[in-house]
Each structure stands twice: as C-alpha cells, then as structure tokens.
Amino acid sequence: MSKTDTQLTLKKRKQNPDDGELDITPMIDITFLLLAFFVVVSKMDPQQAVDLPRATFGVSVQDKDAVVVIVGKAEEGSEDQIFLGRSKDPSIAVTGTDPDTIEEEVATYIQGELSANPEKDAVMIKAEGNVKVGLVETVRKGIAQAELSESRKLYAGIKEEQQ
Amino acid sequence: MTDEPENPDNEPRQGSDENRFDLSVPTGKFADDDDGSRPDVEKSKKVEAAENLASAESYKSMGWKGIDEQDDDEEEPPVSFGKKEKIPEDELDMTPMVDVTFLLLIFFMVTASFTLQKSMPQPPASSDEASMNVQEEEDAKDYVEVIIDQNNTYYVTSRGEEEREAPSETEMRTLVKDAVDTFNPERMVITVHVDATYARYITACDAGQSNNLTIEAKTTDIEF
Question: What is the domain-level CATH number for residue B196?
C-alpha cells in the first residue's frame, strides 16, 4: 500500500513541471462570455447629459421598459425645454409654449409610445435639478391625460448618492 | 548507435551472453551492430548503469528512499528544459490578450450599471380633482406636510403642530424624521410652489421615501 502511494505521488510530481503553466483556456472562455454579455447589455448613449437631482433613496428601473421624457436645457444658458425621447435632440423638443399645448403634445407622445410598445410599463420624467416645478407639473398633467392603465407607474429619474 | 561498418565476425562472444541477459530489449542491438573493442567499453558502462538502475529499483521496492529521490529530481531539469523550449513556438502567448480582455470586461461592467436608471416613484400624475381629494383627507392628520415655497424654503408641519421652517435640506430631513418617530404617520403631503426648484422637491420626496411614507404631491401658484 505505502509503496504504491509513494510511487503515485512521485509520478505526479514529475508530470506537473512538464506541463509548464496552468491551462487558462477555460478562464479566457468565461471571460469572453462575460465580456460579450456586458457589451450587449450596456449601451453607449449620450443621454447622461441630463443633470438629474440627487437623492439617497432610489429604485432601479429598466431604462428600456420606460417611456422617457426629458426636461432640461438643450445647452448651457438656453431656456428649459421638454424633450419627448431619450436625448436632447431639438427635433423632438416640445414646440408649444402655453401649458395646454405642452400637455397635449406630451399626452399624444405618451399615448403613441405606450400603444406602439405595450411591454413598456413605466413613464419616466428625467428632469434636471434646476428646472421649475411648474414645468415638470405640466408634463405630469400631460402624462395624466394619456395614462391608460393603473399598472403603468410614474417615475422621476434621479442620481443616487449616499449621504 | 555507431556508424562503424558491421563486423559480425569480430563480435566478441565472450561476455555477450550476460550482457544480453542483463540489458534485454533496448541493448539487444549492440551485440549485432557494434564491432569488437569499443562496444566492450560501452557495454560495460551500460551494464553498470543498468545495474545501478536495478539496484535503485530494488531500494525503492524495499521502501528505502532518500538519495534516489534526490537523484531523480536532479535528473529532471535537462529533460523538462528541452520540452519548455519548444512550447512557446507551438502556442501563442495569450497573456496580453487576457489582460486586455479583463480590462474591457471591467469597463463594460462599470458602464453597464447606467442602463438601470435609479428613480423615485412618483404619485400618479395629479389632476385638479385629485388635489381636492387630498384636501378632504387632511382632517385625518396622520401625515407630515412639507411645503416648499417660491424661495425654496421648507416648512414642515406634523399633526396640527406649528409650522416649522427648515432653511436647509438637512434640517428638513431631521424634522421629517422627528415627526415620523413621534407620530408615526403614514403619508407625506408635499405642497410645492410652481416656481420652486425641482431638486428641492425631489429631496422632499427622498425624505419621505426613506421614512417609508406614501408621497402625495400637489403644486400651487399661490405665494406663501
């Protein structure tokens, strides 16, 4: 018994140095798999240009499951505007100036988005921290006009920050 | 082994028998291929080596180890060295690729968190009728009221107590926390002037959310 044991260990010791290095192929495989996953999941877009207000309490909402309305300045020094989409593209900015027209435009956009993408279950307002509450309230009233079912929730986009 | 011409006649018969007996298969050729004088020297060496090997084996079989193992280890390096020289030619060195891959992986892992938008649940968008309902419920008094005026100042009122001014966000949070600890309300009613800053309103919502209060919000254009 003891004789065979010593011989076995001797053989292993002899073989390992011959192998040279550890086989890293499975590790590389998994790493590439993870890399591909994160490349697909993450998307590079310039929407972070919105200066969201800070808050300590935030729930995570899948960005793609929400209809997004942005309230903010297109560029430094300009007027606050409402953008019906995920970017501050001037072509999707609300053209109306009085609250009733804005409400109507927002309502039409939300209605269209929700009926075109029934899987979206949330409406998110991404308003910059320094806009007036009145403007955001106008958007909310517009959304209220379009809201179809109770299951669709309203969210305000924030930037999470520890106290 | 040697390139010398075959000379079977010169092959020494003497001693070859025991050589054959000792060296068995691998050394069998020596007897046929080699000529007279040199093989004797080589063979005698081989015989010695074989005897040494045999004796070493016998030591091992006796369970004695020590010098033999050390000898084995010392003999290894030249063998593995020859093999190691060949490996880099056969296989690509993948270390830099793995480095870059990990770097990319970490980068995408960090940026991927952006797709999950942190957000604050909002009460259903209010119409005028909704705010009427809120005013009717005010009698219940089981709520904290936070008012944000046109100058972005907070006023916190809880259960009919006097309105308390909170100049800073931290003070507002403290007042709300105190009210929650004292009266254990369930709701927070935020009344905000239309000219107030949105970030202040979100902070008030945040104070309510972190105390597990149900948020109700209404806007007003009446100056306080």
Answer: 3.30.420.270
Examine the fold and report which residue of B34, B64, B90 is the final residue of a domain before the chain moves on: B90
Residue A24: which domain range?
2-41
B77 lies in the same domain as B144: no
pLDDT of the residue at B100:
87
Pairing mode, strands A66-73 and A59-62? unpaired
- pLDDT tens for residues A56-109? 878 888 877 888 898 988 777 788 889 888 888 888 888 888 888 988 888 889
* B31-86 pLDDT tens trace: 444 444 454 555 455 555 555 555 555 555 555 555 554 555 555 555 555 444 45
- How many residues in total does chain A contain? 163
Q: Which of B65, B101, B123 sits opposite A32 (nearest CB)?
A: B101
Choose among B61, B115, B206: nearest Cβ to A57: B206
ipTM higher than 0.85? no
- Ramachandran bin of A85, using left for φ above 0, alpha for ψ from -120 to 50, beta for the remaining angles: left
pLDDT the model gives residue B166: 87
**Cβ <8 Å between A41 and B105:** no
* DSSP for residue B22: H
* Residue whose entry in the numeric block shows the structure tokens 């009122």: B157
Q: Are B161 and B144 in contact (CB under 8 A)?
A: no
CA nearest to A21, candidates B28, B94, B196, B70:
B94
Q: Is residue B97 part of a domain?
A: no
Parent domain of B14:
8-90
Of A48, A60, A140, the CB nearest to B116: A60
Residues A81 and A132 in one domain: yes
Predicted model pTM: 0.59
Are B205 and B143 in a shared domain?
yes
Size of interface A-B (CB pairs under 8 A): 175
Q: Does the CB of A136 have a partner CB in chain B at under 8 Å?
A: yes
A34 with A51, same domain: the answer is no
Cβ separation B115–A42 shorter than 8 A: yes
CB of A149 within 8 Å of a chain B CB? The answer is: no
